[in-house]
UniProtKB/TrEMBL annotation:
Residue ranges of every copy of the F-box domain listed in the record: 44-80
Classification via PANTHER family: F-BOX DOMAIN-CONTAINING PROTEIN (PTHR34145:SF28), OS02G0105600 PROTEIN (PTHR34145)
InterPro entries: At1g61320/At1g61330-like (IPR053772), F-box-like_dom_sf (IPR036047), F-box_dom (IPR001810), LRR_At1g61320_AtMIF1 (IPR055357), LRR_dom_sf (IPR032675)
Organism: Actinidia chinensis var. chinensis (Chinese soft-hair kiwi)
Superkingdom, taxonomy of origin: Eukaryota
PROSITE patterns in alphabetical order: FBOX
Protein name: F-box/LRR-repeat protein
């Protein structure tokens, strides 16, 4: 069976039937005969003479739906889509015959099984020497979890370097608030929607460098044995429950992490991040459950820390000598200036707060003597309150060289905007 027919069968679930692999005879004749401006059959195909890496770069800019269509262009092109080093399967991009809700694309749930079948067939017939990156985005229901496990195993065997698994559902994104609360409870309750034996699946993955997980759960292996991933440098976790020591397990297994992002995840009330000697970027964004304290300890190379949380009470830094950039959004911890005031290399501080919390935090005896760049975003209060913040702010940062103050126009009266 030639590859063109094979690919046609692989993507039949996506609507690419074999009958579409060849142009109708009348259209082909019109193209060949054409006008003087059309390409003649004896003319050279300059695109096909390009090197493989250039053609692969061109195909990387297309959706997988369009990439597969290129297999009918010529004999040389029919092999390219099955050898691409970067594979991106997105349910929204695959099915164009979808409906729209509030201007957003909404895919019919009946398309999910077709999508899963198509991705599985493509991966099973993959011909490339190595898979550099693999991304898949669709609503993963319970009946598809074993198939996803198989995808991960195949990607690991292909020495994948970047793995991006997005399992968020569009019907949840556009549902009513009450329905979202029900989904949130099921996502972070005892019965999690999706579970992966992560460490078991990745036990032979020595090439993985970047990992992103969205809307799934990490199942820890039994016992206390740790599989060390020396190559893994970046982890991005979104909507992942992390209340059962999952993060501590990651810290012990991924000693060479350089970037860690934890966004919209469920965390314990107290969180300690320590021992990651190579970590340079740490982002904690709008995580649930973290209400008492966050401690950063023995992060010798941490340079940037971004934090957004409405309820945190205490923040502490210990042995973070290279921390230069700190970004805070929403509510400050009570000891905010005391904590950042002890950072020896702090150069940039960006805060986005309500007027009340900004004024309360700035009115403090602590001084940020090393700070060079200050950015302040104020989102509420009247004009007088905003002006009153600047003076104590400058007293707290006597050596600041650059000051940016951004005021939300939505919170200003009309006459103040006109003036």
């Amino acid at each position: 069976m030639n590859l063109q027919v094979l690919l046609s069968r692989c993507f039949a679930p996506f609507g690419f039937q074999r009958k579409n692999a060849k142009c109708p005879k009348e259209n082909r004749d019109k193209f060949v005969k054409g006008t003087s401006n059309t390409i003649r059959p004896d003319e050279e195909d300059h695109i096909s003479t390009l090197p493989d890496d250039v053609l692969s770069s061109i195909l990387s800019l297309l959706s997988m739906r369009d990439v597969v269509k290129t297999s009918i262009l010529s004999r040389r092109w029919r092999y390219l889509c099955a050898t691409l080093p970067d594979i991106n399967f997105d349910l929204d991009e695959t099915f164009l015959d979808c409906t729209r809700h509030r201007g957003k694309i909404v895919i019919c749930p009946k398309k999910n099984p077709m999508f899963v079948i198509g991705v599985s067939r493509f991966l099973n017939q993959y011909l490339g020497p190595k898979l550099r990156s693999f991304r898949v985005s669709f609503c993963c229901y319970e009946e598809s979890t074993s198939v996803v496990d198989h995808w991960i195993s195949l990607a690991v065997r292909m020495r994948v370097e970047k793995l991006d698994l997005q399992f968020v559902c569009n019907d949840i994104l556009y549902c009513d608030f009450d329905d979202y609360c029900i989904y949130y409870h099921s996502m972070y309750g005892d019965d999690t929607k999706v579970e992966f034996f992560w460490w078991q699946l990745f036990r032979a993955c020595d090439f993985l460098k970047h990992l992103c997980l969205n809307s799934c759960a990490i199942m820890l292996p039994p016992g206390s044995r740790y599989k060390v991933f020396n190559g893994l440098s970046t982890i991005d976790l979104i909507h992942v429950p992390l209340v059962h020591n999952e993060l501590q397990y990651i810290f012990r297994s991924c000693l060479n992490l350089e970037s860690l992002k934890v966004r919209h995840c469920r965390l314990p009330a107290t969180l300690c991040i320590s021992g990651l000697a190579r970590l340079e970027l740490l982002v904690i964004d709008t995580c649930f459950g973290l209400v008492e304290e966050i401690e950063l300890n023995e992060l010798a190379n941490l340079v940037t820390f971004e934090f957004c949380d409405p309820d945190i009470e205490k923040l502490s830094f210990s042995c973070v000598p290279k921390l230069e950039h700190v970004f805070f959004t929403r509510r400050f911890p009570q000891n905010f200036l005391e904590a950042v005031g002890n950072l020896p290399e702090l150069k940039t501080l960006r805060i986005s707060k309500y007027t009340y919390w900004a004024a309360k935090t700035i009115d403090s005896p602590y001084v940020l003597r090393t700070l060079k760049h200050l950015e302040l975003f104020i989102t509420d209060g009247n004009v007088h309150d905003k002006v009153e913040i600047i003076a104590p702010l400058l007293r707290a940062c006597p050596l600041v060289q650059r000051l940016n103050v951004v005021v939300s126009l939505q919170s200003l009266p009309v006459d103040a905007i006109d003036n």
